[in-house]
Design brief:
The complex is a heterodimer. By secondary structure, chain A is an alpha/beta fold. Chain A has a single domain, classed as Metallo-dependent phosphatases (Purple Acid Phosphatase, chain A, domain 2), CATH 3.60.21.10. Chain A has eight helices and eleven strands. By secondary structure, chain B is mainly beta. The two termini of chain B are 25 Å apart. The chains are: A alpha/beta, B mainly beta.
Chain lengths: 312, 117
Amino acid sequence: MTKDNQGEGPSRRKVLECMTWAGTGVLWTVAGGVPTSLGIIDEALAQQAKGFTFLQISDSHVGFDKPANPNVKGTLEEAIGRVKALPDKPSFMIHTGDISHLSKPAEFDDADRIISQARLDVHYVPGEHDLIDDERGKLYLERYGRGTKGAGWYSFDANGVHFIGLVNVLDLKAGGLGNLGNEQLEWLEDDVKGRSASQPIVVFAHIPLWTVYPEWGWGTEDGARALGYLKKFGSITVLNGHIHQVMQKVEGNVTFHTARSTAFPQPSPGSAPSPGPMKVADDKLRGMLGIASVNFKQNEQRLAIIDMPLQG
Amino acid sequence: MIKSLTNCVVAGVAAVLLMAATPVWAEDAAVKIGNFTFGPQELKVKAGTTVTWTNEDDIPHTVFSPNNFRSKALDSEDKFSFTFTTPGTYKYFCSLHPHMTGTIVVEAATGSISPKQ
């Protein structure tokens, strides 16, 4: 933040605006509010005071080959290219599920091959598309489930932040939404017991933990119970995927955020007959796909999330 | 398509021998999965009917009726069939997108035209 700048051109001024923005931690960069020039975002990230940054990537759907995007491996590669080009190396990535389209070994293989090019640790949670092998999740757990509990939930600490990866795509009930289930919720209650209320919490899961649009199943039945266990914490950030678009809500100490897919966009709630893949003009697609960067600075109540489309 | 019961009864007696040779008695019915809905959402069939679901979406779906039947994940154009032998109401849903629900009502096959073995 204190770095002196020689160039005084308009783009430099914009960078400074971005820095102020990120620095206050008040403003969240959301879909409409994101600076559109990628150069500015990259410079702003580069200029940020030393903080701790991680990335969110979601819904890569490797194996999907329909008109909405016949080349999902290509767009995943582009997303990883964006990660590699970041001036400051993030600490790690989280992937909020739907790594594959049909849980096939070859799809997981391809995804792993591409994502590993980022040379970052990746913390996964499964989407419903990752658990549709014949044994309903065996393949996922074999690959990504080391050290996890139950169907693949876990927690870890990084730079003073407590991260909790949840699974809300199993044992769904007819007519219902996403589901965490009693066993996982009891684990969660126990996991956060005794932690200092000042420790920032990041929860990530595939389906939004808040109710975005129940008519399309976009929400989690027992998500409120999970958030109830986190009530005492001063800073809670909830990161999800599943709906293939950026959406954000701030409620008290809780910030909810969903990331773009790297594969294909889905319509905004209720704007189409169904939530199926949305075919857009080829030159529009990359503006609707992307990744998110999350920056945490000591003494800031909130984490700064910057959504980065593959193309502005 | 479901043949009407009347047609079956009229044709039934005369056609017993023929049907024994070609088991056309097993009526078929179809449910299409499209736009994240089952169509028709409720379907009435006679016991003995085989219902076939076809996924016409770009996204996989399943057909799941706990304790009754469960399909694998159906990719686009994949099909799943189940033969309903016992009368009753079978509620089912997509286990991946549980807001998708449907019902098969199975009625007793009165005026039996079941083939003699």
